[in-house]
Amino acid sequence: MADISTKRENNPDASIDFSPRTKKTKVDNEDGRGENREQAEKNVLSTFQTTTVLSDSAREKTIFVHGKFADQNAVVILEKTPIIEDTLSEIFTASTLKLDLKNDIYSTYRLQAPPHLNEMKVTVVCPATEKHVKKYQRQESVLVEETPDDYQSITLPFIQNQSFSVQWVYNILEKKAESERIVFEDPHPKLGFVLLPDFKWDQKQMENLYLIAITHQRNIKSLRDLTSEHLPLLQNIFQKGKEAILHHYSLPASKLRVYLHYQPSYYHLHVHFTKLGYDAPGSGVERAHLLTDVIQNLHSDPHYYKTRTLSFPLRADDGLFSQFQQIGKL
C-alpha cells in the first residue's frame, strides 16, 4: 500500500490527508527528490477493514478507528470539517431540512447540506506502529515531575534506546518531501528553520491556524538541550516566524501562541505557532512552554532547562511511564 504509506512512521503526529478530489501527489524520482503530479484520488477507504474504535469525541466531531489495509496495520481518523463563513448562504438555501422537534420558540432540525459542503477530513496513518495505535486509544494520564537526574538516568536513555526516527524531518529539510508546503525558510545552518503548516490545520479557516518551525540544526532534541548558546536561534525563529505569518496570513503577532512541547512528539527541535484562542492539542500548561518564557529563562540562567525539574503528562501506556514507575516516581 505504497500510496498510503507515511514518511512519519515513528512520529505520533504522522498523517496523510485524503479527500475525494483531485490533488497533487509527490512521486519520487531516481535522485530521491519528488515531483508533483495531479491525480484523481480513488477511494482508498473501500479496502479498509475495521478492527476496533480506539476513541471518539462528540464535542470535537472525531472518531479514531484501528484496522487494516490488506496486511498492514492502519489508523483512520474521521473528522467533521469546520463550517466556513463563506458557505453559509449556500448552506441555508441549498440544503434540505427535516424537523426533529418544535416547542414554542425553539425548533431543531436535521440538515443535509449539498455534498461539496458536507465533507469530512480523513487522515490515514499506514503502516501504523503500536505507538500510533496507543496514541489514539483512550488512556489515563499522570503528571510526571522530572528532575535533571531523572532526565539523565531515565528519559535520555529511553529516548536513545527507542531510536525514534526523524527521517521524515530530514526529508523536509532536504526538500525531498513536502517542499511545496513550506511557507518560509531561513537556510542558515545554525540559525535557520523551515516553517510549514501542521497536518492538523486544513488551511481553510484562520481560527485554527497551526504551523510548525523546524530547525536546520540536527543536534537539539528538546527543551532539555537548550542553553543560552541557542538564544540567537530561538529569537530568529520567533521574529521571522511571526513576520512570515503576518505576510502570508495577515495575522499579527498579538494573535499568536508560540511555544515548545515537553515532552515533544518527536526529538528534533521544533516550535509551534497557533492562533490565540484555538484549543490546539498539547497547548495546555502541563506540556506547552511559551517561547518568550523560554528565551527569558535562558537569559536569566544559561543552563535553566538542564538544571530545573520539568513536569509533563504521561499516558499509562507510554513506555516512559513504566520507567518512572519502576523507580517509584509514579
Broad structural category: alpha+beta
Oligomer: single chain
- Give the overall pLDDT as a whole number: 85
Number of DSSP helical runs: 8
Question: Strand arrangement, largest sheet?
Answer: 11-12-13-15-14-16
Shape: globular
Largest sheet data: 6 strands, antiparallel
Total number of β-strand segments? 17
Name the helicity range.
10-25%
Gap between N and C termini, in Å?
A: 41 Å
Low-confidence stretches: 1-40
Please report which band the strand proportion falls in: under 5%, 5-15%, 15-25%, 25-35%, 35-45% or over 45%. 25-35%
Radius of gyration: 22 Å
Query: What is the chain-wise order of helices and strands?
Result: EEEEEEHEEEHEHHEEEHEEEHHEH
Question: How would you summarize the topology of this molecule?
Answer:
Elements: E1 16-18, E2 22-28, E3 34-40, E4 48-57, E5 62-69, E6 72-80, H1 88-94, E7 96-103, E8 106-112, E9 120-125, H2 130-135, E10 141-146, H3 148-162, H4 167-173, E11 184-186, E12 193-197, E13 210-215, H5 231-249, E14 256-261, E15 270-275, E16 288-290, H6 291-300, H7 304-307, E17 310-315, H8 319-326
Antiparallel strand pairs: 1-9, 2-3, 4-5, 5-6, 6-9, 7-8, 10-17, 11-12, 12-13, 13-15, 14-15, 14-16
